[in-house]
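Anyone? Bumping this.
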Amino acid sequence: MQPDELDLISRDEAPILETMRSIYSAIPMHHLAAIHGKIAGAMIVANAVVDALPLIHGPVGCAFQRKLNPFTLSSTFYDSPCTNLNNVDVVYGAEEKLSQAIVESYERYSPKLIMVITTCTTDLIGDDIGSAVEKAKEKVGCDVIYSTGDFVGKSRPVGIQDSLYAMADQMICREDVPRREGSVNLINSPTQRNAKKLQEMAGLLSQMGIKINKICFDHTTTKDMMDLARADLNITGYRMSWAELMKKRMDVEYCQITGWHRYNQKKDPETISPYGLAGSTRVLKEIAKIMGKEGEAESVIEKNRTAVQLMLKSASKELQGIKVAVPVGFSLNLLKDIGVDVVALIYRTQTLTHGVTDRAIQEIERANLSLAEIYDYHPELLINPTPQEELKTFKRLQIDLVMASAKIAHFYNREGLRTVDVNDFTQTKMSVGFLPSLELCRVFREALGKVRMRSPLLDLMEFDDGISNLTPHWAKIAMSFHHLRSSKFKQSTYYHFQGLAGVALNEHNI
Amino acid sequence: MHGISDCITIIHGRNGCHCGALLLQTLGSEQNSVRVLFSGLKSSDEVYSGEERLASAIRLADRNFSPRVVAVLNCSAPVIMGEDVEGLEMLLEGEIEAELIAMDTGGPEGPAWLGYEEALSQLVSRMRTKEVEPRNGINLLGFKADDFCSMGDLNEMKRMLQDHNLHINCVMSCSDFQEVQRAPHAKLNVLLGGDGLECAKAMQEQFDVPYVAVPYPYGLKKSLEFIETIAEAMGKQADPQILEKEKERIKKTVERAHMFFQGIYSMPVAVIGESGRAFDLAEFLSDELGMEVKLLAISSCNYVTSEKIDAINSPNLKLMIEPDRHDMNQALKDARVSLIFGSSFEKRIASELSASLLRISYPVIDQISLSNLPYAGFFGIAAISENIINSILNRNKEEVRA
């Protein structure tokens, strides 16, 4: 979208939208009991470009199932045309069918971009997707790209990374693109189509004299995607293979906001988080340096940061010294800004073990504890605690607020512990800038006003001791999933989530 | 397979297949009994074979859940790879407690309804009969536990049958495995909406159990036909006094909101759903509620769809069989309907057309039913009618676009 359209977005901030997101939050997706396949990721990207159309090259069942959007269960992919492969196609190949389907899709839907998404069927039978696409391109008046899941190695999430890479490789990267010098692209995840989240950052960069070329993904069109190549710098939320490609092919620089690359340079724990007053200052200076605007950046940052600090003084008055239990991973910078006291850090490592080494898990712990020390926090560290261990510690420490998602709030509320759910804040408000600290103040103040003790109906149910947001039955499903996908899976040894730690279960315990 | 309450289903395929299957169950109204696992098939297995991984998954499922049966569904990739899942049955025999049922369910093999029919037929080979035991009761075939309001519908059908001393031996598929195994002990197989025909034929051949097809009992006439057909096939007569009582009850229901029943008469509607349900629903809406069914789109056929097409007698009705969604949406626009009876996947088109949407067809993933109110049967008339009327009454006119 165009940056000057930001103020024109009549973003509906109605509370129902937050509820529509959170109502699905307890469904154990995202590597707990299931993983979304690559097609789902590619569909997300196709859906994020408003005039693009996905075309699933596979059987009709794939198209049916992929109407479900596992990233955002409140949304559905209503348009999921497919090539409807049958057994004959599996034997003889379906390249011709694909070419025809591309033409037919263009005639029916008139998209500006068709994204062909392969399935395991077409991957296995070895259809030459590239040539089928080239053949069809001659007959349609739109761009056509294809995503197979093979372009980006182990980058995650595969479907999203691969389809964006395909877009960059097959469409965006080209010759003779008129550049818009001194401009940047702000690129959020296609699962978060919310340009308002980047509004403050865009404003701060503009004050520094840095032009905003494009903001993705919000009302993003195919033309917007093509115009990404005009900027000098891509600023992305996390590591994106396609941005790396654009740097290589189009000399568009690349700055990744989150990630451990800054910390790894000097092992400076203050560089863990790019958020809050301190983190945002660092990132903005970094961007200014890349764009040659260091001089301008100083005064802009100083002016805006000071203004917010003044507002924070009154906004955070009642939060000063409030004792909070926080999961490792949430920005301690932001918590420092609002003046709470982090007295407990809860570190859950089980879901990290699939993609992160043991050494890295320990490093994360070390970095967070070091940062806590710098901020004069002295938290007690709980590693994979059982629910009982948590409660005992929280009561001993006289915790005022537990940072926990709403789906497990009932567990704490029945013990008289208030909770604060920062999930929606993280999704919609947490960004580089100074205003998120003010917003977090509001979230915490509101949480302090909630009822401390409740008798939720959910308490009538039994929840698992290990994975406390799941029933014992679902915990078994999650445990089975965890074992089945693990490279360490051995038939004769079973691991039980004991507070999400791996504890061998003896035969006679089964 | 998921309808068998003590069965664990293992999806032998890639992540996405499992994720979709799991979600379709989890987004429904029976979150406490989702029993779907996956085999953990990785891309390297597509080169070296995933049979060992699958065998491990079966063993794990057996130990963790102690199911009575493990169903392995071989998805597209393993089917193309030629994985011998039936061979695994022999390999694991004696090693696991559960009975193992494996079948190929690759996407290219056909649409969902074929898979459903084939899965039911697979169960025939697991059925057992004891000659000494007399046959009793009926089996309901073609029941789908993940349909919206399915439990309410089943309870209502059971109630209706019990009122006439007709008892259910087994519901396929909504029973435990032992009940399925005992299916041949029924006197009669009853096919709901014509679903389950191949299974019924196989049972007739193997166990000499006759079958009869009945309509899905939407509305008064279909419910009467449901009871009377079954009673007759069982050599009984439906009790006319009980039927008269039901009619009286329905009359009182209609009386309570009769002005609104009058108001929805001639309302233009569209019906989108599976063959085993949609034809009967359309007939109820047209015949008994007086609605104008402008479009009937059959999203999924069965073996008796062609007979039902022949039986249609409505010149104004546009009939589409397994239509392309784009074509169906266009037909919906042309039909200019006020109310769509469909699935959650019709939500956007309903919104675009400013039509109300009554969720009744599979899949319904954005509405749950905890009250177990039926849409079928005599009691179902009140529930479905109030939802129809409310879907019009509670619209905010200012939100409706011109």
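Late reply, but here is one note on the structure posted above: Chain B touches chain A through 53 residues (CB under 8 Å).
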